Amino acid sequence: MLGEGVQVTLFGSRVDDAAKGGDVDLMIEVSRALPEPAVVSARIASRVSRAMHGRKVDVLLKASNLLEQPIHRIAAQQGVAL
């Protein structure tokens, strides 16, 4: 869907095995601009959720045409690259 050069980072409560976090938080970084980022995010979240038997999945996108927010820095600092 997004091609090559994509970096996926798991962050949030699911990084800590001792925590009983529920949803899966993923930051997906691409080096190019993403047209229709909301659609892309929803499609990825839906596909991953189905693959994980309905577990809730939140997708945070990082691309050249999207404003970087503090959550992007938190995900990069505390997350685990997949």
TrEMBL record:
It comes from the Bacteria. Gene3D superfamilies: Beta Polymerase, domain 2. SUPFAM superfamilies: Nucleotidyltransferase. This is DNA polymerase III subunit beta. It comes from Limnohabitans planktonicus II-D5. The lineage of its organism: Bacteria, Pseudomonadati, Pseudomonadota, Betaproteobacteria, Burkholderiales.
